Amino acid sequence: METSEISLHEAKLYQALEKRGAAWSTAKELAKDAGIAERTARAHLLKLAKLNLMDVVEVFPAHRYRLAEKAEKRNAGYLARLIYAVEVFGITQ
After folding, report:
1. Is pTM beyond 0.85 here?
2. 67 sits in which H/E element
3. φ, ψ for residue 64 (rounded to 5)?
4. What's the Cα-to-Cα distance from 45 to each of 1, 6, 30, rounded to whole Å?
5. Which domains does the chain have, with CATH numbers?
6. Cα dist. 27→3, 76, 77, 90 in Å?
7. Which distant-in-sequence residues (6+ apart) come within 8 Å of 1 by Cβ?
8. Cβ pair 14, 4 in contact under 8 A
9. Over the stretch 4-52, which tens digit does the pLDDT of each residue have?
């Protein structure tokens, strides 16, 4: 599942997740924070969940997401690349 490229949108979404910390957030909220389309946010959140970097709660009417507390242990390599991508793209909080 892991790809070699990280998009600007994925880096923005990661930064939005970091900013929210341990708070549970919907894809709509994160998309707004990241300045990306909700559909794009949902696709990247699904990818990050499959990479074990996210905690997901499937509740109605919208799933909730947050960075996993053990994300670094679950997939340290991809997390390091995400952090580096944020720096390369010059994304600030």
Report:
1. yes
2. strand 64-67
3. -115, 145
4. 13, 13, 10
5. 8-88 (1.10.10.10)
6. 22, 23, 24, 23
7. 47, 50, 51
8. no
9. 789 999 999 999 999 999 999 999 999 999 999 999 999 999 999 999 9
What dihedral angle (degrees, nearest 10) is formed by the CA atoms of 89, 17, 51, 59? Answer: -150
Q: How far apart are CA 72 and CA 34, in angstroms?
A: 22
C-alpha–C-alpha distance, residues 75 and 68, integer Å:
10
5 neighbors 84 (Cβ within 8 angstroms): no
**Residue 55, strand partner residues:** 66
